Amino acid sequence: MFKQRRSLLVVSILLAILVSACGGAGASTQSQDLAATQQALEATQQAIEQQQQQQQPQRGQPQREQPEEEEDEDIDPGRGPGQEASLEGEPYYVEEFSEAPQSWSYFLLSGDERDFDLYTRSDRLVFDITGDYVWAYMTYDSYYYTDVRVDFRAENLGNNNNNVSLICRYNERGWYEFNVSNNGLYWIYRYTISNDTFHQLYNGGVSNLRTGKDTNTYTVICDGNRLTLGVNGVEVRTVQDNMFDEGLVGIGVSSFDLTPVLVEVDYVEISQP
Question: Measured between alpha carbons, how far is 158 from 254 in angstroms, rounded to an integer?
């Protein structure tokens, strides 16, 4: 603004010199033209100063800062199936994903890593799958459990054709897996690593599942040789198996031939059965 004022002052002085240098009738005409030009310049100056005053924040009314966009926090990849985990941390707690959890890691049993993303956002864990037949798992690596209960709440925001999973007794030989599809079907499996095989222990339908884009709470209890699946506070099925007696716990989300799959996990609670 100071430079603009100085420039206009120089122009005004030059105009005055030109007016005094000119004489006669021609001088009178030039003087009128130069006076009109000077008035126009002064009006322009006033308009510039008014615009600058409008752009400056008023005293006592500080400018409001724009809220920063929340950044997603990616989860680090973990072991492959059967690889050893480092055991540190508490056995029973609630993970609410206010930040990327340090004691959890993921692996893919099927699918391309480029078609999958796992991150935390707005206090939720997000499974973001864009490719077909991506089977993603996330395990809590701090404790081996014999008898345990796992609850988690998840919201389906993408395609309706996908599974959410809970696993218990994940170890170097395999694990137990409980799958619930958004179409209302469920499966209970025993997975063995040595031959890469899912052995079905039971399957059926969940009558109280909220299908489609909705939120459900899932529960598994592994107690002795009894394996129990629950949905929205109701027991769905209990089966028995003696293959595995201890291991890690975890959750998962899987896609089939329809994408995208977008599931957001609100919390995971690990407790005694």
Answer: 12
Q: What angle do CA 105, 111, 116 make, to 5 degrees?
A: 55
DSSP-assigned letter for residue 216: E
Cα–Cα dist 137/117, whole Å:
12
In 3-state terms, what secondary structure has residue 223?
strand
Alpha-carbon gap, residue 180 to 236, rounded angstroms? 11
Q: Enter the tokens of residue 96.
A: 């609410």
Residues of the chain with pLDDT below 50 are 1-27, 52-70
Q: Token pair of 46, please? A: 């006033």
C-alpha pair distances (Å), 6 with each of 2, 11, 42, 164? 6, 9, 12, 71
Query: Do the beta carbons of residue 124 and residue 163 sit within 8 Å?
Result: no
How far apart CA 63 and CA 60 sit, in angstroms, is 10
Predicted local distance difference test score (pLDDT) of residue 137:
97
CATH of 73-271 among 3.50.50.60, 1.10.10.10, 3.90.190.20, 2.60.120.560:
2.60.120.560
Q: What is the pLDDT of residue 90?
A: 81
Residue 127 CA, distance from chain mean position: 8
H-helix or E-strand spanning residue 22: none
Rounded CA-CA distance 122/211 in Å is: 23
The residue count of the chain comes to: 273
Euclidean distance between the first and the last CA atom of the chain, given in angstroms as a whole number: 74
User: What is the pLDDT at residue 160?
Assistant: 80
In the prediction, which pLDDT does 22 show?
46
